[in-house]
Each structure stands twice: as C-alpha cells, then as structure tokens.
Amino acid sequence: MINIFNDLKSIKDDTITIIKTQNLQNDKLDELKSLLLSKHQEENITKSNYVDEINSILKLRDSNNQIAALKLLNDFKNSKWEKLNEIEKYKLIANIGICHLDLNNIKEAANSFIEAFNYNQKNAKAAGFAALGYSILGKTEAAREKINQTILLDPDNSNAYVALIKTEIENLSLEELLIKIPLKIRDTVEVSFALGGFARHKNDFKGAIYWYQNATELAVKNKEDLKASLASTILESVTNPSLFLTNQIDNETKNKINYCIELLSESWSEFKDSDLRKSRSWILINRGIAKKFLGNIEGAYEDIKQAKLESDNSYFAIRHLAIVSFEMDKLDQSLDLFDQLKTYETEDDKDEFNIDIFRSSVFHRKNDFKNAILTLKNILNDDISEISKVHAKGNLILAYLASNNINKAKELSYLTIKDHPKYLRGYIEASKVFIKLNDKKEALKILEQGYEYLNDTSSHVEIKEFAFQYSILEEHNKTIEILEPIINPEIYTELSRTLLMAYYHAGETGKALKLCQVIRSKNSPIDVIADMQSTIYESIGDLSMAIDVCEEYLDIYPDDQRIQIRLALLYYKIKENKKVKEILDSLNILGVLPLDIQHQLAYLNILVGELKRGLSIAFENRRNNYNNPDAHLNYIKLVSEFNQLAEHVTETDEVNIDTAVKIKNENDEILTYYILNESEKLFTKELLITDPFAQSLIGSRTGNVVEIDQGIGEPQRFEVVGVLSKYVYAYQESIELIKNRFPTSKGFKVFNTGKTGDIRKDLKPIFDSLDQLENFDNKLSHYYKQRLFTIGACSELKGENPIKFWSYVISNHELGLHTKISLRRNFVLATELIDKEAGIVIDIISLLTLASTSNLELLEVIPNIKVLSRSTIDCIDELVREIDGFRSDGYLLVGKQKGEYIKEKVTKEQIENNKKHYQGLLSWAENNCEILPCNEALTMNASKKDTLNKTIGKPFIDSILIAKEHGYLFLAEEETLRAIALQDYQVKSFPTYDLLNFSFKTGTISLDLFDEEIVGLIGLGYKYLPVNSEILMKCAEKAGYQPIPPFDLAIKTLDFSISSEDSSVQVSADFFYMLYASVSLPEIRLKLIVPILYVLIYRRNPVKVLRKLLIQIEIKFSILQKQKDEIQSIIRDFIKGKYG
After folding, report:
1. pLDDT by residue (tens digit) across 938-959?
2. Element (DSSP H or E) covering residue 51
3. Residues whose CB is less than 8 angstroms from the CB of residue 583 and which lie 6 or more positions away in sequence, other chains included
4. Domains plus CATH for the chain?
5. At 687, is the secondary structure helix, strand, or coil?
6. What is residue 1024's DSSP assignment?
7. How much is the mean pLDDT over the chain?
8. What are the residue boundaries of the PIN domain, all occurrences included (predicted)?
9. Would you say the pTM of this structure is higher than 0.70?
10. How many whole angstroms separate alpha carbon 547 and alpha carbon 556?
11. Burial of 574 by CB count in 10 Å (0-12 exposed, 13-18 middle, 19+ buried)?
12. DSSP annotation string for 744-800
C-alpha cells in the first residue's frame, strides 16, 4: 500500500512553499522595491566625473547585468574611494546595496543602505534608505528613529513609509497603518506594493491583491517583479490546500491559476537571460506549482528542473524537484535529490520538512520495504517533533503491512494511538491493519475512537482518509457525514465519487441523483455518473430521462459497451426494438464486461429475436465465469425461460462444431469434450476444431469407435457414447454443478428423484416441495382473508407477478377481493373529483378489472388525465415475456390444493388468448394513459421504499406516491390499499364500483347495464359490493338459481358490517318478491332464501331482524296470500332450526 499521506502532503508542501517564497520576495520587493527606489536618489547629486563613471556602470544594472555591475562598482570603490567626496561615496554605496538587493543578498543590501547614510546624513532619501536597512535587519528602534528623521526632512519620502510598513507589520492592523500614511503616499508604486505585502502577511488576500494591482498599474517601467508578486499572491489566495487535497478545483479557480501562469511567464521572460535569473528562480518554482495544481505534472517538472539549474541548486528548487520526481515515478532521481537536499537543509528546515519521511515513501513505492522500514526506524530514534513521529509511525505501519508483517503493523498501530491519541493518523492506519486482517469490527471501533478528534481543524488529508476508511467498511452514513461539508458538488473527483456511492448504497437516491445532476451539468460526460443517473431514473420509472443521460454520454464516448447495453435495455422497455437491434448489431467484439452485464446482453438479444447470438453470449458468459455459481444459475434460467431457443438446443447425433461429445476410453473412463470453432483461451474439456483429436472425432455418431494412432504401439480406441449440442450439455452440466458443487446457491432447486418404479417414492422430493408450497399458500391465504396482506404484499411474498395472484384470488371465491364500499362517502368524493377533472392514477388491479369486464371505455369518455406507473407497465410486460417463453403447444401445471395433488393443462389457445389480452392492455395503456415516474420515491430512503415495495408491492406503492405527488385520485379496488393511501399518504381513492356509479349517474350507462356490471364484479369474486334486489336476482340467474357464486358472494353484502339492518331487510324482501315472480319450484326458492336468512341474522338480534322481515313480507306480498304464507312458513321453520 502506498501512503496516501505522502502523496498528498507534497501538494500541501507546495502551498507552504508558495508562502515561504512569497516571504522572500517580500524582503526583496515589498519592503524595498529597489528598482523603483533607486531612481529617486539621484535628483540632488551634483554632477562630477566620478558620478558619471558610476552612472556608466549602473547602465549594466538597468540591463539586468547586476553581477557585472556589482563587480565594477566594488572595483571602482577599491580604486577610487579615497578620491570621492561624501555625496559620491553615498551614491556608490547606495547603488552597491541596490545591486545586492537585486541579487537577493538581503543582509548585504541592508548594511549598504545603513552605511550610505553616514555620507549624506541630512538627505531625506539617505535617511529613508537607512530606515529600510534597519527594518530589514529587525532593528526596530533604529528603524523608527530613521523613519521619523526622514519624514521630518521630507514628509513625502516614500522610503520612510516603506520602512514604517515593514517595521510595524507585527504591531498594527492594516486599518491602523493606513491612518499613518497620507493618501498621496499610498498611491506611490513602492508604498502601494509594500501595503500589498503587509496585507498578504495578515492573510488579507483581497487587500493584498488590491494593493499589488494598484502598484502594477502605477508603474511605468520595470513591471516584471510586480507581475510575479501579484501572480504569486493570487495563486496563494486561490490555492486553499483543501481544494488540492481533495482535487476540487473549479473552473473559476483554474482560470485564475492560468492567469497567474501567464503573469509569471511574462515576468520570467524578462529575467531568464539576465543576471537576475538566479534570484528570480522562485518565479519558475511558483509557475511549476501552478501547473501542478492544474494537473500538468510534466510542465511542473520542467519548470522546477529549470529553477534548480538557474538557482545553483537552491533548497526550495531541489525540494520541489524531488517531490515532483516522486509524483512522476522517477524514483531513483527522487532519492538522489532528497539525498542532495540533506546537504542544504538547516535545523529550521528539519522541523518543517522531514526529508527522511519522504525518502521512506520513495523506498515504499519502489517496493524496497526493507530500506523504507530501516529509514523510518532511524527517524524515530532521532529527536523530532511529535507530528513527525506520528507520520513516521504511520508510514512504518504501512510498510509493515505492505511487507506482510501484520503483527508488527498491528502492534505499532495500537502503540501510535496510545502515544499520540489526539493525532488522527494512528487511527487511520490502524483501521487499515484490521481491514487487512478482515476484522472489520475492530477497524470500525478504532475509527470511532478517532472520530471523536475529527473537527474543523483536522487536515483535509485526515478527513479524506477517514471518509475512505468508513466507505471501505460500508459505513455509508458516516462517509456521508464526513464528506458532505467539504465536497464541491460541481467538480468530479475521487471524493465526490465516494460521496456519490455512499449516497447510493445508503439509500439516499434523491441526494445521489441531485449530485449526479450537478456533476453532469458542470462536466463533460462521465461513465460512472451516466450509469448511476440512468439507473436511478429507471428505478423511478423515468425512462425518457434515463435514455437522455445515456445518449448524451454515448455522443462523446460511443464505444462504451456498458452504457450501450444499458441504453438498449431502456429502448426495449419503451418498445423501440429497431434501436435495440442497431445497438446489438454494433457490439461485434465484446470487451471485458461484468457477468451480470453479459447476462443482460444475452437476454436482450433473445428478447428481440436474435436467439443464436443471445445463446452464444450466454454460453460464453457461463464458460468464462465457470467457477461462479451465478453464471450457471443465469444460464439455466435463460435456457429454461425461452421456448424459442429449442431450435438451437435440439439434440444432434453427429460430432461437429459446437457439440459436446462423450467418449469412453479403453479403461471404460467417460470423457467429455466441447468441440469449438475458435477461442482465444481454452479451458478444461475443450478442443478446437483444428485439434487432431477433434478432427478424428468429427462426423462420428453414438456407438462409433474411433482409433487414434499415436505413432507408437497399438492405436488407442475411443467409443462415442453420446453427442449433444454444446448448449444442451452446458445446461445439463450447470444443473449438476448447482446440485453438487454449489448446493447453497439460491434461485434454482434440483430434485433428486428415485428409480424404484414407485411414483410416490421416486417423486417424493417433488411431492414434499408441493406440500411445502401448499402450506405456505394456506398461511398466506389466511392472512389475506384477514385483510392483513394486500394482493401486492402476497405476490411479493410468493415472489410472483401480482397479476398472477390477482388471478388466483378471483378464481378462488373463498378468497375473493375485498372491496368494501362506503356508498355515500365514496360516491360523493369520486363524483366531486372526477367532475373537477382531477388526474386519475390507475392501480394495476383496477386496470385488470376494467379490462376483464370490458369497461376500459368508461375511462376513455371522462376528460381526466389517466396515469399509470412504469412499474404497472413492467408487470404486464413481464407477464407477456413469460407467456412468450411457454411452449407454443401448451404446458402442464402441477400443484396441491385442499390436500389433493392436482395438474392443469394449459392449452395452446389459452396461451394465445392470454398473450393477446395482455398485449391489447399494453396497447390501450399506450394510447390512453400517461406513464409517469415515481419522483416521490426520491424523497425517502431507498431502504424504506424497498420495504414498501415488499409490504405493499412496487406497482401499488408507486401508484400511490405518484397520486400524492400530483394531487391526483387513486383508482384502486382493495379496501385495505385505499385505506393505506388515505391514512399514510393523504391520497383520495375510489374503486371501479364508483366509476360505474358515476357513469350511470351521468348517463353513460343504463341502470340495467350498471346492474349487469356489478354482477360481473361479484362474479369475479369482488366482495361486499352494494347490491339491490335486481342485482341479487341477476346473480341468482347466473348461478343457475343455486347458492353458489356469484349469488352466495352477492348476499354477503347484506352482512351487518356492510349494510344497515333496515336496508338489508328491505333488499331481502324485494328479492323474495322477485324470486316468487320468476321461479316456480319451491325447492329452488328455498335454496336461495335460507342463505339470505343466515346472513341477515349473523351478529344481529335474530328476533328483531326477522320480525322486521316478516313485516316487510306482509306488506310486499299483501295480495299474494299463498306466496306470503309459504315464505312466512319458511322463516318460522328457520327460527325453529329446521334448516340447521
């Protein structure tokens, strides 16, 4: 493992060095501004031959030949000193000081300025120079004395104020300082520049840039130093270490850095061929740093390498070159430079920058762990700062880990935490140790201990590392908590990617999508972003946005196969099969794709009719992932699901390409080989068609004997005992592997059947499985009947399509569908909202209900927006695909109900009719409904949404949430589901009954048709629908006047929990009257009357309710005495218990 701290600390060190280099240039420029100051000292100098000679020499300085100028000035001093007057001596010494200043000889310059004053003590400029000299040397009192003297002599002397700024830099604020400087003096080049240095020293970068910019604009000549200092200050102002430690450099910052590079380049071009190039080599260093910030590591290397050459191996140039060499993996060069750096470092340098820690990192990257460990141990034996000890120990832990010395790494990690509990590095590296030991519990415990010390003052290296460690441990919420405050969402970095993954895996899909959207809007297309964003959009049913994301990405990166396959799957969902095929046809040569992606690709090819290609991809996927049980499960499911594949997996009896041949050798050993046409890599049991052994087998059939002449001894004989399509054999082999090698795999069950001839014994595993399924179904049915589970919940528990469970409950009248109606409340609500043309979200069961009763047109005629969730469409699509996979000539279903094993033949006609029905339903939905995404899902955690999917069913909860988001009505049949929608999500809903009632009230359907439709719903097993005598009569007719469905279901509405006592009595009396008018046989009438009497008295007062009934019969049958006597007799006999 490479120590990330060392990699990143180099960036931090760059920022520190900008500051240090800036301090140096402050001494040269901010405080003195020698190039400008020197022009003012000559105004009152009397001309003489000696002055002319000095001025002649100074022309070399004007052309930046300071070394030559300084040599000539010193020669002039040695030869002519005694002949010079005081003013000439002043001019000579002052200019020697200025040359020293240019060459960065700061101390010599200061001493020269102080000495020069001795020869011109009454001159304000000389006093100003002396003040500068004393301020440079830190002689505060002497500097203040000279400053005051200078201002008395000349209140406008800028040198005095430059010295004042330097002298009071630690004592005054900028505001306090400005009070002491007259306005007109502030707008001189040298004072403005010195004020910039003062502000920068106070970390007031805005002020510093203002004054530096002001100085640059004021200057007429010699702007190069000013530009360089301005650039370095801007660079420092935008290079917050956190930005670079997290790689979060936005476009605005990049633009500023590029501007700095431009200024530094202009400045360097002025100095590169002059004597000042050595003293200005820091310009190259800062330009190299700026380039490195922008990722131009090669440009940084060249600049810093040139700076080292120009500066005659300055400490900072060597240091930066060593670091950048390390970053470029020039490791031997980096080591040499660090060794060279040691000869230049001072004690102060050692405290600030430990060379040996960096050297250990170089050894580590070279995999020379022995020297890395030795170097670090030596460091720890030295007298170094605590922070250096922490980093040395951290590096040593990593070196131990990399060299597999786990025990020492573990021991040192505990020791580091104990010795330096407030330093986070120990906790970070200790967690890495225990992650490698696979002791995630201990790793997390250690991180939690260190987390207490993580705060606003923690370095961004430590913050970043903590986040990464939590991410590795899948502590996603902790990762989010750490990263959110420091992430710039507009920039795609390793950190933003980590946060994105944390959001997604923590279930914060709303936040993940928002981060994807921001990154996508500010950056060029990124594969991870495109993949995740399209996945999230697909999860909420927003396929159009998912497609847009993929298409935008593929416009830039058209060959990304993962995104191509994702886009093809999305196109398939919206029935754009032509586009699907175009993508699939373009994928001629597949790259390295994950197992699940290749399975999707195979599946997709089969779905659009490319059967051979799909099967071939599935075979290769299984072949290349042979040791992964998922590969075999995927292959088995794929081959089992699609009937259309039969033509490609049919039996063959002749050995050829793409067959599997079983042969028996002379030792009776059975060997199996796949005969393949081509392959880059052969696995066990595979032969290429070009193999001599394969050639000898080609054309053979079962029973043939093949002789192989090996050139020595007798030919070897092989008997062909079986020939299969390679796809068939792979299918059979995968089943055996799941059974014997991967028995714990879930998703496919293999039954071990016997061969005794006794069906019950031989098929016992199958019967046992059917018993278990019946037991499960019975429990599920019990909970469903108790209204504890909805259809959606039950289908989730069974792991089947909700359409199937709906079909099951309406075919089993003991279960039926609970659709209890509150007549007045529901009808008023539905009428009010439908009249207002509110949107209607249609639940999948309501859609099936309306389709099954041929009432979809009732939705068509109302003006309301009709809405379906994408998951509703997916359920119907899934069923159509399943039907497509059935054998075209029918199939057999086996099961167990009420203790009896049953089988059911599903005919070809049933398959075709089902497919036609559901395809028609999809077509109706496409023409009449909007498919809306479930955006509301993004407002909750994905784990909560997943729980809702499992407990309510995805198409059901999606529909409720869509209705909530848009304020729409919810059309749903199940009473329990409607209650959930209202109570938990404040969504108002109504069932199909209310739609029928509304259609009748508005004249769309007649009363007779209304009654017929209610009878139809009751016939489907929809329970507790309001009925009248006409509906009961129609149900009796459909039931053949027997107490069976739909009649026995209809009378349940007369139950005490559904209808009032008076209403039930009235409907019953009316029905009896109609019954006597229609049915002449007493025994038939009796079969229908008695069940109603039982319903009427259930959990009511029998005497009271039957008395009411007798009164109604007395009234109703007042002119039908014979019929009245008969029915009253039946009721009296019922009271006596004659009918049980």
Report:
1. 999 999 999 999 999 999 999 9
2. helix 49-62
3. 564, 565, 567, 568, 571
4. 790-996 (3.40.50.1010), 1028-1135 (no CATH)
5. strand
6. S
7. 86
8. 841-981
9. yes
10. 15
11. middle
12. T-SS--------SS-HHHHTHHHHHHHHHHHHHHHHHHHHHHTTSS-HHHHHHHHTS
